[in-house]
Amino acid sequence: MKKKGFFKMMAAMVVAAAALFTASAVYADDIKVAMITDYGDITDQSFNQTTYEASKAFSEAHGLEFTYYKPEGDSDAERVAMIDKAIADGYNVVIMPGYAFAGAIVETAEMYPDVKFVALDVSEFDLTSAAGTDTYEQPNVFSAVYQEELSGFMAGYAAVKMGYTKLGFLGGMAVPAVIRYGYGFVQGADFAAAETGAEVSMNYAYGNQFYGDADITAAMDTWYQGGTEVVFACGGGIFTSAAEAAEKVSGKVIGVDVDQKATIDGQFGEGMTITSAMKGLGATVDTLLQAIVDGKWDEYAGKIENLGIVSGDDPTLNYVQIPMESTQWNDTFTQDDYKALVASLASGEITVSNDTSAEQPTAEKVAINFQGNIK
Length: 375
Hints:
By secondary structure, the protein is of the alpha/beta class. The chain has helices spanning about 1-30, 45-60, 75-90, 100-110, 125-130, 150-160, 175-195, 215-225, 240-250, 260-270, 280-295, 335-345; strands at about 30-35, 65-70, 95, 115-120, 140-145, 165-170, 200-205, 230-235, 250-255, 275-280, 305, 320, 365-375.
């Protein structure tokens, strides 16, 4: 009897496991993932490309149907058209990178309550501004925003600790995320200057667009030829102008959003990129898609989460960081120094302001030459 009971129990467990597998497989077959680009494309070596690659890799690994759509232009109407098309084509998870999607989300999310909208870097301010309301909460929308001021701080701190004293910040458009990066960069450089006693100066400007061109390159030529050693190029493809100018004088560049070393060094010269101020776009995509596959979407639905440091012990687990592998560590700024910095940020021993209300950044130890918009 005991043997029969044991075999019955094992048979029941096998049947249950098979049923669970079948249910999971059916559920996975029902998930169809579409990514919509903003005004860039999937080869922008920044926001769109990282989101696309993460979405595609996860979908392939989990047997999910995946594609992407590119709007014909830069307007809410054209982004809405692509969302409509994706849903008409049967896609029920829509991933959208960038604040520019706020208007399209407000217009479409309520129309498609059974579709899961995953937004990256679309803040509550973006959504309420688009909706014309004081608050915005839609149960089928999740948005992740990032504490860019922290990774900006890390990059500014790293640059000064590495020995660079003539810095530059070239932002794209002066939107909140770019401003937070820039103001964090100033704070990090200022903190390191106070620690080291170095005399640090910084040129600070916005290109007023998210791509490089001849006019912006000319401005960067003036910076680098005037003594600027390293520029934090913060805003999509605008790094091309900084890198073109840096190449002429063996200058350095700091990347943004993702680890841009391979891209910048590959195009403009090995060793140009000293580090990158990163945020976890790929990690966010993985987390949300895994939650959807696991049937845990409800844990995220309707929320806007502000992601930053989650571990003071392991910097690679954080949603904001500089890269461990490609940063140009030296005797005055080592990986251990970086880990200690992250631990101090995590504990609150070091605090970084995310206030973007001031028209320009200020510092105690860094002399800032604020130039506003180049164009």
